[in-house]
TrEMBL record, chain A:
It comes from Actinoallomurus iriomotensis. This is Uncharacterized protein. It holds the Pfam family DUF5825. InterPro entries: DUF5825 (IPR043863).
From TrEMBL, chain B:
InterPro entries: BchE-like (IPR051198), Cobalamin-bd (IPR006158), Elp3/MiaA/NifB-like_rSAM (IPR006638), rSAM (IPR007197), rSAM_horseshoe (IPR023404), rSAM_ocin_1 (IPR023984), rSAM_sf (IPR058240). Its cofactor is [4Fe-4S] cluster. Pfam families: B12-binding (PF02310), Radical_SAM (PF04055). It comes from Actinoallomurus iriomotensis. This is RiPP maturation radical SAM protein 1.
Length: 211, 615
């Protein structure tokens, strides 16, 4: 055996980066044909993205996703925010930029990977800023997007149902539970569809006591 | 009878009081029915401080005294003025003690000014419950606040029976407390589940409780009369804790909006490792080392009940060591629940990867493995039963399994040598990407530990810790029985080595957040990404399959000879000399840790998810 330790400058190793389109991303992840850095082409809210979960990205060893196309405030935005939320749930970096205003209060998104050129968002972001945990018949929500706050508990089955159902964009409704979650910023709506904003905490950081 | 169970400062604000939860449930075993009310003096004191300080003395100041002050009797000093009716009681002694150690007093001096007023308030609030008997549970810094309130209760209502129990009453400490504080009628010394019930039965039947096992009571002339030692409590008699009264007090109080509640749970008592090899410095098991664990089904039922009742997913277990059977019998059941629990557990450090995975999958996110040292000889002196490389393996694997590790580096053991520390100090810069110890301290002498029990172990000239001097008006002969912590002339390494160790650990803590060292398989072979503070970024490329395989085998600690055999068995035959040269090369780059002829890899298999502490 050669007992010399080879050292080289850090740099891209062949296979470290992979270009993939939004429509085929989930299939690539399922097949295990991913790379630590994904360069994603195509519309950032293509239906294929809805199949991408945080677990899938994590298990495929993805560390960073770069979205090539500019994100716009239109009907597909909720699907892109869902993708950001999934990446955030496993602390996977997403590099993306938006064209102008996203049409919503971006402070509600401070728990998601920040967009390029938004220093307020970048400085506010940290893992676990807004998440929920599931218990028997209740859901505990930690929401520190507006500053330090202790967790609170949802026990209303309708509210818990909405948190689960709006894991993917789904129709807005007229219920008081919906209105309450909307008011508290736990769901975001474009008038027709809505999305649950906090992610379920799947990975505990080190130290686990800080979130 | 009407019974009031009291938990005084400095019990944490966000956790229920486990002894009260247990005794509440045990009162059902009494012959006569009793009414039990709880009084959470810790919560009331913190609220009182908020009020009298206009919000300036809040939970952070309380926690400082509870967490840091415990090593210096800070909380006990705060209430000592009230106990002795002297606001100036040992103020100068306290200040001198802090100054000599360069310690921040926190808000302790301001708190002292309010202690007497609160003691009177607490006594009156307790008496508003019209109790026949008041029971104080005291562990660590709960002695003096409890004594001060008990004394005031006796002044106001001499007929009320006052009982003390808890960790501070174990062994000679309970008898000393009883002997020196005549307003304490009874002390339950040792585990309380049987003795407390027997005491209540005797009192409600009008009998003198003298002779109850584990009880110290008063004779006809007020003298201390100790019953026979308490029998060990079978684990079946340890009930599911009843936290309902605490939950109400907490929810109605002012801290529910300021803190996140954490449940406490006790699945076992004693220590199965300590039964075989008592770690030489550990006194935590008091007079009962025998390990007793609830069956996993009962633990699961209890946890289910507590989580459902209180809607709280954070649990700290108070067990001194995880029952290994729980890994197979309890953890999978917790995992199946699908609940997002966050559990803290004390474990033995020799856990294997599949066991760490079982813990993580069940929601055990936080472990205290009793690492204490990274040197095998020092660990042997402590009778820890692990090698230094096993401890380093645990630190590395904890990052890989995303487990938070609490640990401390201890030194100052008799017969240790500089040579047990220098090689570790030299290798610490290579480990800065792993979770650092919270600090390094000279070992304390705890009552009940082997260091305490036998003076021939090297601490012959021990005496009660100096911190008791700013608290108690007692001669040293009485403190000898009342104290839990002792000190003695330093043993083991000298201050030069100790300060080098502390400096290396301080640098470790400083550099940790910015450091990673990860490996990955690539088409070029096994590549290790250098990301540790103080080293230039680079990649180490183990392109020779024998190099890569050897590094993977070193993920678990191995002797060089064992490693050579395993490599040979896999078709990578090489001499031990060649292998040693290769390991030396790896050590030179800080990619492995070596101790006692064993080696373990330092690079983790992926980047851990870290979040910086705020503030």
């Amino acid at each position: 055996m050669d007992t010399t330790l080879a050292v080289r400058k850090p740099g891209a190793v062949l296979g470290d980066r992979l270009e993939v389109s939004t429509s085929e991303l989930s299939r690539r992840l399922v097949d295990g044909a991913a790379a630590p850095v994904l360069l994603v082409t195509g519309t950032p809210y293509a239906p294929g993205l809805d199949a991408v979960t945080g677990d899938l990205l994590w298990q495929a060893g993805v560390r960073e996703v770069r979205i090539r196309e500019t994100v716009r405030a239109d009907d597909g935005l909720l699907h892109f925010l869902r993708f950001l939320r999934e990446a955030a749930s496993h602390d996977i970096e997403v590099v993306w930029e938006s064209a102008g205003d996203l049409g919503c209060d971006t402070r509600l998104l401070y728990h998601l990977p920040p967009r390029a050129g938004d220093p307020s968002w970048r400085s506010a972001y940290r893992y676990g800023l807004c998440h929920y945990r599931v218990g028997p018949g209740f859901v505990t929500v930690t929401d520190q997007r507006r500053g330090p706050a202790v967790p609170f508990t949802l026990r209303n089955p309708q509210e818990i149902g909405l948190v689960q159902d709006l894991d993917r964009p789904g129709p807005s409704d007229e219920s008081s539970a919906f209105a309450g979650l909307l008011r508290s910023g736990l769901i975001i709506s474009n008038g027709r569809d809505a999305l649950c904003l906090p992610y379920r905490l799947r990975r505990w950081p080190i130290p686990c006591t800080v979130i | 009878m009407r019974i009031c169970l009291v938990s005084m400062p400095w019990h944490l604000l966000e956790t229920p009081c486990l002894p009260i939860g247990l005794l509440r449930a045990r009162v059902d075993a009494c012959r006569d029915p009793h009414t039990v009310v709880d009084y959470y003096g810790n919560l009331r004191w913190a609220e009182y401080l908020l009020d009298v300080s206009g919000g300036q003395i809040a939970e952070a100041e309380y926690s400082y005294v509870a967490d840091r002050g415990v090593w210096h009797e800070m909380g006990e000093w705060i209430f000592a003025g009230a106990l002795y009716d002297d606001p100036a009681w040992r103020v100068d002694t306290y200040r001198a003690y802090l100054e000599a150690r360069n310690l921040d007093p926190g808000a302790s001096l301001r708190m002292r000014e309010h202690a007497a007023g609160f003691v009177d308030l607490a006594a009156r609030e307790i008496l508003e419950e019209r109790p026949d008997l008041v029971g104080f549970t005291t562990t660590f810094q709960q002695n003096v606040s409890s004594l001060a309130v008990a004394r005031r209760i006796k002044q106001l209502r001499p007929d009320v029976q006052v009982v003390f129990g808890g960790g501070n009453c174990d062994g000679p400490m309970g008898a000393a407390l009883h002997r020196n504080f005549p307003f304490v009628d009874h002390v339950v010394s040792g585990e309380g589940e049987l003795a407390f019930v027997a005491l209540l039965d005797a009192l409600s039947e009008g009998r003198a409780p003298a002779g109850v096992p584990g009880l110290v009571t008063r004779g006809p002339d007020g003298e201390s009369v100790a019953g026979p030692p308490a029998a060990m409590v079978p684990i079946d008699m340890v009930p599911r804790p009843d936290f309902t009264a605490w939950w109400s007090a907490y929810g109605d109080g002012r801290f529910a909006e300021r803190l996140s509640p954490v449940l406490l749970y006790e699945a076992s008592r004693g220590c199965w490792w300590g039964e075989k090899h008592h770690c030489t410095f550990c006194g935590l098991n008091g007079t009962t080392m025998k390990f007793r664990a609830k069956p996993a089904t009962r633990v699961w039922d209890d946890i289910t009940h507590l989580v459902e009742t209180h809607g709280v997913l954070d649990i700290v277990t108070v067990d001194n060591i995880l029952d290994v059977a729980y890994l197979a019998e309890l953890m999978p059941r917790i995992q199946e629940s699908g609940w997002d629990l966050r559990i803290r557990y004390e474990v033995k450090a020799n856990l294997k990867p599949d066991q760490l995975a079982a813990l993580r999958d069940a929601g055990v996110t936080h472990i205290q493995p009793g690492i204490e040292s990274l040197n095998s000889r020092a660990l042997r002196l402590m009778d820890k039963g692990v090698h230094g490389t096993q401890n380093v393996f645990l630190l590395r694997a904890s990052d890989e399994y995303q487990l938070t590790v609490d640990w401390n580096y201890l030194y100052g053991f008799p017969d240790e040598r500089a040579g047990d520390y220098r090689p570790v100090i030299e290798q610490i810069p290579a480990m800065v990407h792993l979770q650092p110890p919270s600090g390094s301290v000279r070992v304390l002498i705890e009552r009940f530990s082997p260091h305490f029990q036998s003076r021939e172990r090297g601490f012959a000239e021990r005496r009660p810790s100096r911190m008791y001097q700013h608290v108690y008006d007692l001669p040293e002969s009485e403190l000898e029985d009342l104290a839990y912590q002792f000190e003695a002339p330093p043993q083991g390494i000298d201050e030069d080595v100790a300060s080098d160790l502390r400096a290396a650990i301080a640098a470790w803590r400083h550099d940790h957040a910015a450091s990673t060292l990860t490996w990955r398989e690539t088409e070029d072979g096994l590549v290790i990404d250098e990301g540790r503070a103080g080293r230039p970024r680079c990649e180490y490329v183990l392109s020779d399959p024998a190099q890569a395989r050897s590094y993977r085998l070193m993920e678990r600690p191995r002797t060089i000879a064992a490693l050579a055999r395993e490599l040979a068995a896999e078709g990578f035959a090489m001499s031990e000399e060649t292998l040693r040269r290769w390991v030396g090369e790896l050590r030179g780059a800080g990619l492995v840790f070596e101790d006692d002829d064993r080696v373990v890899a330092l690079a983790t298999n992926r980047r851990p998810l870290r979040v910086a502490e705020v503030g």
